[in-house]
Amino acid sequence: MSTPLAPAPIVHFEIGSTDSAQLAAFYGAVLGWTFLPAGAAQAVTSATGPTGMLNSLGHPPDTYVMLYAQVDDIDAALARVVSAGGSKLVGPAPLPDGRKFAWVRDTAGNVLGLLTPLG
After folding, report:
1. Contact at 8 Å (CB) between 88 and 104?
2. By three-state DSSP, how is residue 43 classified?
3. pTM of structure
4. How confident is residue 46, by pLDDT bands cut at 50, 70 and 90?
5. Which residues contact 68 (CB under 8 A, 6 or more apart)?
6. What is the bridge-based pairing of β-strands 64-70 and 51-55?
C-alpha cells in the first residue's frame, strides 16, 4: 500500500513584464504592494501569503503569471507530471538560495512552477 501524496502548497508567484519597475509602480498604486529591486526583477516585500516577484526575463514569455507549488523532491514530482500526461519545460534548475525550481505543463496546457523548500 502506498503512502498518500501530501498536498503541495502554493508558496511563490511571479508576474512577468518587459519592465518590472513600471509594473511595480502599477501594483504599488493598485494593491499597495512595496518592492525591493533585485536585478531585472522586483521582489514583493509587503504581500501576505506566498512570496512574490515581478520579473523581466529578457526573453519570451514577456508577460505571464506563474504560481509555484512547493515539493520536497523535485525529481519525483517531475516524474509524476510526466507519468500523468504533463511535460517538463524547464529545470530542475538551482537558485542562489539553494532551492531548485522547474516549470511544467499540465494536460490542459497551463504552466506551473515547482519549487523546493529552503534548507
Report:
1. yes
2. strand
3. 0.86
4. confident
5. 10, 11, 12, 13, 14, 50, 101, 112, 113, 114, 115
6. unpaired
